[in-house]
């Protein structure tokens, strides 16, 4: 039987209008632009407006991705939405996106793997498409992390932002140019679950809670985990740091990104960086970066794009996509 590939047809993103700069944060907590830039590379981040929820951001991003693909909502039969900041405990934010787009067929569900969520969602969608069960999928990362930040805690509130990004993936039989998702590798290790977590939840505190993080511990593990799972992707495909065109990492921290690229031997000019403008938008960061690099003409049809993420759980993941 001929093989099915999941091919990227379109990409889109959305950022809330309000920008919060490091100077703004210095008015709120004991911090400075110099400290934040030097430790993280972040200069500004976007914050959702009062009443603007995760599904609102996701719908904007999905519409942009559909427009980029030249498709309509009717063409979509699967939505996989990665988020750790859903609109409600249930139903899934994905069904609000489905309804918002006017789609009444197919399926929509959420997936939670914190900052690795988008790569987990991409791999999940890819596997559904490859079985032939669905034809076209919106893979979305959308977050309103501003709602789970303790705005009096300078060690976390300076790091995160809100946003959404989406890809349209299409199942293509006998793809002749070798395009599509080539491989994906997902990992987790729950022994680290208390190093980056939210201190509330439905079943534990009946509340939402705030993000808590042992920043140094996250940093200590990040580069090793990221590089391990990228080596898995290279070994599975025969590709390498030399053959990839673009490295689009999760945008948590400029130092983690730079150290990972150096360890892997990836040339700096291949690295897509948006953390300076967006902060860490968790599951949204990779599709936001993909959308930026696609829109400005860097990522082109046929390019080999390496994705990686690492986050709470810990979870970590990589994927190689021929664009
Ligand atoms: N402004 C000024 N000073 C600060 C701030 C701030 N915003 N935050 C912490 N400090 C202070 C600390 O209180 C400490 O002061 P002390 O020495 O008087 O005790 C000092 O700065 C150093 O604190 P550290 O936590 O040791 O700083 P570090 O160099 O480790 O940088 C950071 C902190 C940026 C959080 C870093 O550990 C990091 O990037 N970790 C990775 C975390 C991450 O990226 N998480 C995202 C989610 S996971 C993921 O997506 C990969």
Task: Tell me briefly what this model is.
The chain has 323 residues and is an alpha/beta fold. 33% of the residues lie in helices and 26% in strands.
Helix share bin: 25-40%
Task: Say which CATH homologous superfamily of the largest domain is assigned.
Answer: Thiolase/Chalcone synthase
- Secondary-structure element series: EEHHEHEHEHEHEEEEHEHHHEE
Largest sheet: 5 strands, mixed
CATH class of the largest domain reads Alpha Beta
Structural class designation: alpha/beta
List bound small molecules. Answer: acetyl coenzyme *A
In the CATH scheme, what's the topology name of the largest domain? Peroxisomal Thiolase, Chain A, domain 1
Distance between the termini: 24 Å
Mean pLDDT: 97
Structure in words:
By secondary structure, the chain is of the alpha/beta class. It has 2 domains: 4-173, Peroxisomal Thiolase, Chain A, domain 1 (3-Layer(aba) Sandwich), CATH 3.40.47.10; 180-322, Thiolase/Chalcone synthase (Peroxisomal Thiolase, Chain A, domain 1, 3-Layer(aba) Sandwich), CATH 3.40.47.10. The chain contains 10 helices and 13 strands. The chain has helices spanning 22-26, 33-40, 54-69, 93-100, 117-131, 154-157, 215-237, 254-264, 275-278, 285-295; strands at 4-14, 18-21, 44-47, 78-82, 107-111, 136-144, 162-173, 180-188, 196-198, 211-213, 246-249, 304-311, 315-322. Strands 1-7-6-4-5 form a 5-stranded mixed beta sheet, sandwiched between helices. β4, α4 (93-100) and β5 form a beta-alpha-beta unit. α3 (54-69) packs across α4 and α7 packs parallel to α8 (254-264). It is globular, with a radius of gyration of 18 Å. The model has no long low-confidence stretch (mean pLDDT 97). The site of acetyl coenzyme *A has 23 residues, from α2, α6, α7 and β12.
């Amino acid at each position: 039987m001929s093989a099915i590939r999941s091919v990227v047809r379109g990409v889109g993103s959305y950022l809330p209008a309000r920008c919060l700069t490091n100077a703004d944060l210095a008015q709120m907590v004991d911090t400075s632009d110099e400290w934040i830039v030097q430790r993280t590379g972040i200069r500004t981040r976007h914050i959702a407006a009062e009443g603007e929820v995760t599904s609102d951001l996701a719908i904007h991003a999905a519409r942009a991705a559909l427009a980029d693909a030249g498709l309509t909502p009717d063409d979509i039969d699967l939505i996989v939405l990665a988020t750790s900041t859903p609109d409600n405990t249930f139903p899934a934010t994905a069904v609000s996106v489905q309804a918002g787009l006017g789609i009444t067929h197919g399926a929509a569900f959420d997936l939670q793997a914190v900052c690795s969520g988008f790569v987990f969602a991409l791999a999940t969608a890819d596997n559904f498409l490859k079985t032939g069960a669905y034809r076209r999928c919106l893979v979305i990362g959308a977050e309103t992390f501003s709602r789970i930040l303790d705005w009096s805690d300078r060690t976390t509130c300076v790091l995160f932002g809100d946003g959404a990004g989406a890809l349209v993936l299409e199942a293509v039989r006998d793809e002749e140019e070798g395009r599509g998702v080539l491989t994906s590798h997902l990992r987790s290790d729950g022994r680290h679950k208390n190093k980056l977590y939210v201190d509330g939840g439905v079943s534990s505190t009946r509340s939402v809670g705030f993000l808590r993080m042992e920043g140094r511990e996250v940093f200590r593990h990040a580069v090793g985990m990221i590089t391990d799972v990228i080596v898995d992707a290279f070994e599975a495909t025969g590709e390498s740091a030399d053959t990839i065109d673009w490295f689009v990492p999760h945008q948590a921290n400029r130092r983690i990104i730079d150290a990972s690229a150096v360890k892997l031997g990836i040339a700096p000019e291949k690295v897509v960086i948006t953390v300076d403008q967006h902060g860490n938008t968790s599951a949204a960061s990779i599709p936001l970066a993909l959308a930026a690099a696609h829109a400005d003409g860097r990522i082109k049809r046929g390019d080999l794009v390496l994705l990686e993420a690492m986050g709470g759980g810990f979870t970590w993941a990589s994927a190689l996509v021929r664009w």
